[in-house]
Amino acid sequence: MAKKKQDSPELNLDSLMDAVTNVVGVLMIVFVMMAINTAKMVQKILSDLPPVTKEEHQQMQEQVKALPPPPADPEKLEEDKKKAEQALKKVIEELRTIDTSDMAARMKFMDLDSFRKKLEEAKQLREKEKVEVDKLIAEIERLKALLDDTPVYQPPPPTYVRLPNPRPYPKEPNETRVLVARQGVLHFNQKAFLQPILDGLEKAKSQLFYKEAKIEPFADMLAKIYGTPVAAQKAWPEIAPFVGTFQLEYVAIANKTLTAAGLPADRKTLSALGDISIAVRSNPGAVAEALVAATKGDLAKWTALDPSRDPTKPTLQAVAGAGKITFTWGTRNSEVKATPRDIHDYFVKDLADISGIKDRSRERTIYDAFAIRTLLERAAGNPTFSGPFTLVPTIRPGSTLVQMMLTPKAGAGETLDQMRNEGSNYQRMLRQLKADPNGVAVFQVMTNAFDSYLEARKIADDIGVAATWEFLAGLELTLNVNGYEVQRFALSPPPRPPGKGGDIRISAPKKSLD
Predict the structure, then answer these.
(1) Other beta carbons less than 10 A from residue 433's beta carbon
(2) Where are the beta strands (DSSP E) in 284-412?
(3) Predicted model pTM
(4) Three-class SS of residue 257?
(5) d(Cα 43, Cα 35) in Å, to the nearest integer?
(6) 201 and 236: one domain?
(7) Is residue 498 part of a domain?
(8) What's the CA dihedral at 177, 179, 185, 191 to 10 degrees?
(9) Sign of CA dihedral 128, 132, 133, 138
């Protein structure tokens, strides 16, 4: 059979059929040869067989019958062979009728270059992803190594927790502050700390009076009152003598108010208004404004200064009528002409001369803030006074008291380990508080030291000390030197406007033991 050309678009099925036919032919030849060889071998075996007797033949037949049947009948094998040939012919015919045009068309239009390009892109993508995968594998190995080196987590020891037990606060408590920081505690009894300082000031009180007043500390305040530094400097000789008696802010306001109204504003007038201001629990500036308002027919400002706490029993009254004003102080009535000069004279000469008002300013003392500061600076260098703190006295404009800024010294106080010792200063202090019926430990806790507070509080609870606690912004403390009023050196804040009838004020919560 002639072979088809190699470039035929159809599959070479004829060659396949030729090969199958050749295989079948070879098998048939091999089968025939085997049959011939078998016949020859049988014939040779028969010719070589020795003669047998009837009994031997009978015995051999019985042995043959005893043999198992042959695996297949030769006739059946021949029949199966014919069936296989027919099936082979049928398969060959079916192969000839297969439509290979679609497959040939696909093979024809395949673009091998595009396949190579896609294959190359796939290789590049695989290499890129391989790099990323290698990085991830390296990171996993690194994390595994870190995990192997990570110590086993040990939970913290149990925390002491206590339930609050609210109790009334002592009426006259003897408070000891316990400043709690993360590293330890520092206790501080304000009363015990201040008492030696106040005793020292009392002994040196004669050094704290004003010897000579200078305008420099008051310059800014007076310039705001009078409008200009020049006007303040001009008024200074009139108001300076009152530096040790009244707040110069109010004396300056009184001086300016009287001068602006054309009334005398000399030292005698200012002194009289000062005495009156003490009697009505006000200040010289307010009394001067009430006096000037009265000269203009407005008596409301004066009657508003009534010191009586019983509205039905006023201490002072003022009634105008027929060009006159009837002023009343207690049981004493004075009828005064409604002229500025007469009204001025009533306040300065008549009212200021009443018993209980006259020379009231002698009861007041305003101390020299700079002298107090100098004395406290000397005391700060003495460990007996300062103790575990660094003490810095401060004059703060706007405050009528000298202040002391206290900062804990390095190493002051006790650590948590030290305070657990029964002989520690902390526990000795707690036992002293326990013995005092009014003793209270006020724990002031830094925001990052609550665990330290729980340790310190447990010790206090075990000893049985009455205590409470609050948060503390910083370990620095500010204390006022009470009992020694000083000049403010700044204008006081404006008075708070009176509340409306519907205003509700909520008082601060009362302290209680917990």
Answers:
(1) 24
(2) 316-321, 324-329, 332-337, 389-394, 403-408
(3) 0.65
(4) helix
(5) 12
(6) no
(7) no
(8) -30
(9) positive
113 lies in some domain: no
- State which H helix or E strand residue 480 sits in: strand 477-480
Question: DSSP 3-state helix, strand, coil percentages of the chain (rounded to 5)?
Answer: 50, 15, 35
Angstrom distance (rounded) from CA 1 to CA 148: 78
Q: Which residues contact 308 (CB under 8 A, 6 or more apart)?
A: 314, 315, 316
Do residues 316 and 237 make contact, with C-beta atoms less than 8 angstroms apart?
Answer: no
Q: What is the pLDDT of residues 107-160, one digit of tens each?
A: 555 566 777 888 888 888 888 888 888 888 888 888 888 888 888 777 777 776
Within-domain flag for 462: yes
pLDDT digits (tens, 9 = 90+) for 230-250: 999 999 999 999 999 999 999
Query: By percentage, how much of the chain surpasses pLDDT 90?
Result: 37
Q: CB–CB of 308/314 below 8 Å?
A: yes
* Long-range contacts formed by 99-102: CB under 8 A, 24+ apart: 100/10, 100/11
Q: Which domain holds residue 280?
A: 210-363
For residue range 187-222, what is the model confidence (pLDDT) as tens digits?
Answer: 888 888 888 888 888 999 999 999 888 999 999 999
Structure tokens at 509: 């919560």
Shared domain for 96 and 36, answered yes or no, is yes
Please give the structure tokens belonging to residue 393: 């006295």
Residue type present at position 108: K
Q: How many domains does the chain have?
A: 3
Distance of CA 53 to the CA centre of its chain: 125
Which residue, among 473, 459, 461, 470, has the nearest Cα to 426 in the 3D structure? Answer: 459
Count of C-beta atoms within a 10 Å radius of residue 294: 25
What would you report as the CA-atom Rg of the chain, rounded to the nearest whole angstrom? 60
Query: What amino acid occupies position 279?
Result: A
Tens of pLDDT, residue by residue over 288-330, are 999 999 999 999 999 999 998 888 889 999 999 888 999 999 8
Closest CA to 404 of 359, 442, 362, 372: 372
Residue 333's beta-bridge partner residues?
Answer: 328
Check if the beta carbon of residue 199 is closer than 8 Å to that of residue 481.
Answer: no
Which residues neighbour 386 within 8 Å (Cβ) at sequence distance 6 or greater?
A: 379, 380
509: enclosing H helix or E strand: none
Residue linked to tokens 């000390």: 465
Nearest-10 Cα torsion for 254, 260, 264, 267: 30
Same domain, 405 and 436: yes
Scan for tokens 């305008």, then name that residue: 215
Is 469 contained in some domain?
yes
Pairing type for strands 316-321 and 324-329 reads antiparallel
265 φ, ψ (degrees, to nearest 5):
-130, 40
d(CA 100, CA 11): 7
Q: Which two tokens stand for residue 442?
A: 């006020």
HSE-CB at 437 with a 13 A cutoff on CA atoms is 2
Q: Which helix (H) or strand (E) holds 479?
A: strand 477-480
